[in-house]
Amino acid sequence: MANSKRKNTMDYMTAAFRFWARRGCPTYEEARDRIFNRALKSAEGQDPEKAVLYAEGEVARASAELCDVMACDIVFREFRESGNELICEAVREVYMVQPFMPIKRNDITNRVRAFSYKVPISEAQVYRYLARARKAFVTVRNLREDDPDEIKW
């Protein structure tokens, strides 16, 4: 059960980085503005007050996606500022390649291998970098990693 839970969490984080890449790696503000402006444009011709309310509603409905965007942006910014750009590069080269295409069997392994040859570092180190990025995402996004059965109310 724990392995399945870990796989689900890892899949979610991978999907979040790929989602962010599909959007062009925007900041939270840029992503929010895109959603707001797209909604305003679709509400053209309506009462301006209603159009703004509609646009704010669209932003509210996209809150989960915006939180993922914000978490990805913060993770990358913090790694860059702390001199760990190589972690960002690993995430880009492994998770964010062809973000519009589904990941096929062995894609991650092959990308890790290619990145380890390119840099050069060991494959194990690449996996450690990816794990650090996922852990940072979990922390920033405030996702729960514990087992709900272990929580004592």
Keywords:
153 residues; mainly alpha; 0% strand
Describe the protein's architecture and organization.
The protein is mainly alpha-helical and about 150 residues long. It has one domain. The chain contains seven helices and no strands. The mean pLDDT is about 90.
What's the quick description here?
By secondary structure, the protein is mainly alpha-helical.
Number of strands: 0
Based on CA atoms alone, the radius of gyration comes out at 18 Å
Order of helices and strands: HHHHHHH
Question: What is the share of helical residues?
Answer: over 70%
Task: Using the alpha-carbon principal axes, give the shape.
Answer: elongated
* The number of domains: 1
State the major sheet: none
Class by alpha and beta content: mainly alpha
Please count the helical segments. Answer: 7
Overall pLDDT metric: 89
Q: Point out poorly predicted stretches.
A: none
Q: Beta-strand level of the residues, as a percent range?
A: under 5%
Straight-line distance between termini: 22 Å
What's the SSE blueprint?
Layout: H1 2-22, H2 28-42, H3 48-61, H4 63-81, H5 85-94, H6 107-118, H7 123-141
